[in-house]
Amino acid sequence: MPIYEYACNACGHALEAMQKMSDEPLVDCPECGKPELRKLISAAGFRLKGGGWYETDFKGGGKKNVASSDSGSAPACGTGACPACSD
Questions:
Q1: Separation between Cα atoms, residue 33 and residue 11, nearest integer Å
Q2: How far apart are CA 67 and CA 56, in angstroms?
Q3: What angle do CA 80, 87, 66 make, to 5 degrees?
Q4: Which of 25, 30, 44, 51 could serve as a FRET partner for 67 with CA atoms 20 to 30 Å apart?
Q5: Could you tell me if residue 76 is left (phi over 0), alpha (psi between -120 and 50 degrees) or otherwise beta?
Q6: Residue-range definition of the domain harbouring residue 31
Q7: Which pairs count as long-range contacts for 78-86, CB under 8 Å and 24+ apart, including other chains?
Q8: Reading across the β-sheet that carries 3-8, which strands appear in turn?
Q9: Does 8 fall in a domain?
């Protein structure tokens, strides 16, 4: 469930609220009681880790890909379903 940030236009109180995406935005400030809350825009709170597209496709300059293939080892999937391991 996402965590949304709110700020009150009347008193400046800031808060976070865990809500479903389908929930209506909060309106009433818990501090002053006025219907002056507004939803703030903030950065997403997750980080992509491990091997994958984000690691190899968006590197700049002379940086090498972290996920390199060893020519003498078998592919990671090993199922024979992809072109790399169907040999």
A1: 10
A2: 7
A3: 75
A4: 44
A5: alpha
A6: 3-39
A7: none
A8: 14-18, 3-8, 37-39
A9: yes
- 8 A C-beta contact, residue 54 and residue 46: no
Query: Tokens in use for 47?
Result: 């980080």
The predicted model scores a pTM of 0.51
**Residue 45, domain member (yes or no):** no
pLDDT tens per residue, range 68-86: 555 445 445 555 556 555 5
CA distances from 28 to 11, 37, 42 (A): 12, 6, 20
Tens-digit pLDDT profile for residues 17-57: 999 989 999 999 999 999 999 999 887 766 666 666 555 56
How far are the Cα atoms of 21, 58, 59, 70, 80 from residue 54, in angstroms, in the given order?
Answer: 26, 6, 8, 20, 25
Position of tokens 């190899």? 56
